[in-house]
Design brief:
Layout (H helix, E strand, L loop, with lengths): L2 E6 L4 E7 L3 E4 L9 E2 L1 E4 L6 E3 L1 H5 L1 H4 L3 E3 L12 H8 L7 E3 L10 E4 L2 E3 L1 H20 L2 E8 L5 H13 L3 E7 H13 L5 E9 L4 E9 L2 E10 L4 H20 L3 H6 L3 H21 L5 E11 L5 E9 H26 L8 E5 L6 H11 L4 E3 L6 H13 L2 E3 L6 E3 L27 E3 L6 E5 L2 E6 L7 E8 L7 E9 L5 E10 L9 E8 L5 E7 L5 E4 L6 H18 L5 H20 L8 H17 L8 H13 L6 H16 L3 H16 L2 H14 L5 H19 L3 H10 L1 H5 L14
Parallel strand pairs: 1-11, 11-12, 13-18, 15-22, 18-19
Antiparallel strand pairs: 1-2, 2-3, 2-4, 5-6, 5-7, 8-9, 9-10, 13-14, 14-15, 16-17, 20-21, 23-24, 23-26, 25-28, 26-27, 28-29, 29-30
Helix pairs in contact: 4-5, 6-12, 7-9, 7-10, 10-11, 13-14, 13-15, 14-15, 15-19, 16-17, 16-18, 17-18, 19-20, 20-21
Length: 753
């Protein structure tokens, strides 16, 4: 029988745990360790992924194709300031970080061996390894409770669910890490009838998480969350590294970073690996000793050949002075949460410390000084508690558990094992009383907003009980509005807003301005957002497909920008605008009726059609509204005929002949409309040809024309191999070539060829 596990998918380390009659950590890796490094590398010889402590300990062997702290990139975008800082910190993050091909600035990709991977794909490798290691010891694993930072927004949670799906895991719940820690503590330490209010202080490797929880008899109610997803042990490492560099620079009158950058790849990666190892070692040593040293000899030299050694000693006092601002920031965030939720510190029974960074003595010292010794509890298992809490919930959500006598699965209600006859009354923690159920009352972690022309309007408050649904009324902004764009934001650190989703819907009826639209926004227990809209006048309801940063958001962004371009362009006639909007409506309706995955190729196809519709709209009326259809038809027949079905080829030829030679105006119009519909089937080929137009365009710079020509030839070569996926990837990665000349490349120039 398949089993469910609890997983702490951490920034620095990940842990897997399981509960049957007791809760325990499942060791992972060849050395059977509790902590699995959240590290993924690609083996240069086999091309296979390698996960865990082994690649981390062989940094020199795998760098730069080695990924750490990928959790910080989950659900993030390349435009994020913190992502840019990670990209610049090559000593800590040697792998490539770039915008996802086919995505938007709201997306990000990790580059290994010259190939892009999403953070979800990298995280999936960690989850898959944990699942496989647990399966060896437990049998088949199918389900898991996976923990996430309490401050993760909906987009980041969606990315985590995607990673689990890629790893072959079904998610029972996404559980906030502080809640998991409280469950782990409460099950062991609290009486059944005892009630406590915890403030969980979770200072991990990449995130700082806060949560206020009311715990009573196995019930855990989330009453407020806070923190900073960009504050953690990584930042302590970075601070210590900067101290080492500054000390060495001053002592030797050099720039250490420049010396590192001047090393050849092999030496540079070896140096970076050793530096990371020694920084982490010094950080841990300073928790138990009064001083630590970082020593790397003979690896760096100046242009003059002078050897520059890293030989820096740091006292605990110096270390604490360095990191004191970071700890002070965590205390400020505690006060902010208490103030926001209306919980005076007097109402908090305990502040429970979990996470590796909470083990630093200064953390406890500063918290005790602020809130008192009696308030502060250090978890007995600061690195394992979160996974164990997840395992306890995974067990509670399951209907079965493992018989301690024979190991077979039995119903939770069984008093005797039906397989071996062993009594099961004694399997509970208190020697016979029924084990209390674990119930978690989930709440929203963020405020949600809808973006309006007049400003952002809140639609959902933080700390609402989940699942949650709310109806909000808005009005159409113009007469006969046909297309509405929906943009959803959430609050982020520092009072900023972060776009988490967007989508479109169409209105087929002719409604007057200020017609009522009723939006329904729904959040699941895992805070997964969905939206639908009802047109009050007609009662028609439409589900709104929301894009979240991949090819879906890129396509939706193209639609948004394209609409703005056409509507603002006074040179486009009203009839052309109407025709264009009709084509956009058709594509939005296709999106609404379909269920494309966020990275599906169909998004690129729709984007191509929007670009073609936009180009068509820019063709002057005097050139003939339908002349583009003729030109596209001739391009397809002249360049791509061998890829077109014989039936479609013959029909295109017939329709072109009728459109050009018929003396009957109605027959000509009908032929052009049919031709337009037929050529849309082959919009991919038309897009390919647009790159040739850029190469032929007199206004294009020589370098741009050369890039366009290369892209066109690469696409044609891929097409000859019947490699459509590569064609789509090339179109996506070279979109800037088309946009560099504006959105309206005059396709009529194709006649010259």
């Amino acid at each position: 029988m398949a089993k469910a596990i609890g997983i702490d998918l951490g920034t620095t380390n990940s842990v897997v745990a399981f509960k049957d009659t007791s809760v325990r950590t499942i060791t992972t890796g060849p050395d059977n360790e509790d902590l699995c490094r959240s590290c993924v590398a690609i083996d240069k010889k086999s091309g296979e992924f390698v996960v865990g402590n082994s690649p981390y300990n062989s940094w020199k062997k795998y760098a730069p194709n080695i990924v750490v702290s990928v959790k910080r990139l989950m659900g993030a975008g390349i435009s994020d300031e913190q992502v840019q800082k990670m990209k610049a910190q090559k000593s800590l993050y040697p792998y490539g970080i770039d915008k996802l091909a086919g995505g938007t600035d709201e997306s990000v990709a990790v580059i290994l061996n010259g190939k892009q991977y999403t953070p979800e794909q990298i995280s999936a490798q960690i989850l898959r390894q944990l699942k496989e290691d647990a399966s060896v010891k437990l049998g088949e694993i199918t389900h898991a409770v996976i923990t996430v930072p309490a401050y993760f927004n909906e987009k980041q949670k969606t990315a985590t669910r995607k990673a689990a799906e890629l790893a072959g895991l079904k998610v029972q719940r996404l559980l906030a890490e502080p809640t998991a820690a409280a469950i782990s503590y409460g099950v062991d330490k609290m009486e059944k009838d005892e009630e406590k209010v915890f403030l969980v202080y979770d200072f991990g490797g990449g995130t700082f998480d806060l949560s206020i929880l009311v715990a009573s008899g196995g019930n855990f109610i989330e009453s407020g969350t806070g923190g900073d997803r960009w504050l953690g042990g990584d930042d302590i490492d970075k601070t210590l590294m900067n101290y080492i560099f500054e000390h060495t620079n001053k002592e030797n009158e050099v720039n250490v970073q420049d010396l590192i950058d001047a090393l050849d790849d092999r030496k540079r990666f070896a140096f970076q690996g050793e530096l990371k190892k020694q920084i982490e070692g010094a950080k841990k040593q300073l928790s138990n000793s009064k001083a630590a040293s970082i020593e790397i000899f003979g690896e760096l030299e100046t242009e003059d050949g002078d050897i520059i050694d890293i030989d820096v000693s740091i006292t605990r006092d110096d270390f604490e002075n360095l990191i004191r601002p970071l700890i002070q920031r965590t205390i400020e965030l505690v006060d902010e949460l208490l103030d926001k939720t209306g919980y005076p510190i007097e109402t908090i029974d305990n502040i429970l410390l979990v996470g590796g960074s909470s083990c630093i003595p200064l953390v406890r010292k500063m918290l005790v000084a602020k809130y008192g010794e009696e308030k502060i509890l250090s978890s007995e298992k600061p690195m394992l508690a979160i996974a164990e809490g997840a395992a306890i919930l995974a067990h509670a959500l399951s209907d079965e558990f493992e018989c301690p006598a024979c190991g077979k699965m039995v119903s939770k209600d069984s008093a005797t094992c039906p397989h071996c006859g062993a009594p099961l009354d004694g399997t509970t923690s208190d020697g016979g009383d029924e084990e209390p159920p674990i119930l978690v009352t989930y709440t929203t972690k963020h405020n949600y907003y809808i973006q309006l022309e007049s400003g952002n309007q809140k639609i959902i408050d933080a700390n609402e009980l989940l699942p949650f649904e709310v109806n909000k009324k808005f009005k159409t902004s113009v007469d006969n509005q046909k297309i509405v764009e929906l943009v959803i934001l959430s609050d982020a650190e520092g009072g900023a807003y972060e776009k988490i989703a967007s989508g479109f819907f169409t209105i087929s009826d002719n409604l007057p301005v200020d017609s009522n639209l009723t939006f329904t926004f729904s959040l699941t227990e895992s805070e997964e957002l969905s939206a639908k809209v009802k047109i009050d006048q007609t009662g028609k309801t439409t589900n709104i497909v929301l894009g979240r940063g991949n090819k879906d958001s890129k396509c939706l962004g193209t639609i948004s920008n394209s609409i703005q371009d056409i509507l603002r362009d006074s040179s486009v006639s009203d009839s052309k605008k109407a025709e264009y909007m009709s084509k956009v409506q058709e594509n939005i309706d296709r999106i609404s009726k379909s269920n494309f995955k966020e990275d599906a190729s169909e998004w690129q196809d729709i984007e191509n059609k929007i670009n073609l519709a936009q180009n068509h709209a820019h063709v002057p009326d005097e050139e003939g509204d339908n002349s583009v259809s003729l030109i596209i038809g001739k391009i397809l027949l002249g360049t791509f005929d061998r890829y077109i079905s014989t039936e479609d080829e013959n029909e295109m030829k017939s329709l072109i002949t009728k459109a050009e030679s018929s003396s009957n105006p109605m027959e000509k119009v009908v032929s052009l409309k049919k031709l337009e519909s037929l050529t849309e089937k082959y919009s991919l080929f038309t897009t390919i040809f647009m790159f040739k137009l850029v190469a032929m365009n007199d206004s294009a710079s020589p370098s741009l024309a050369a890039r366009a020509d290369k892209a066109y030839n690469d696409m044609m070569n891929a097409l000859n191999r019947h490699d459509i996926d590569t064609v789509r990837d090339l179109i996506s990665s070279n979109q800037s070539i088309l946009s560099s000349l504006g959105t309206s490349i005059d396709i009529k120039t194709a006649i010259k060829g």
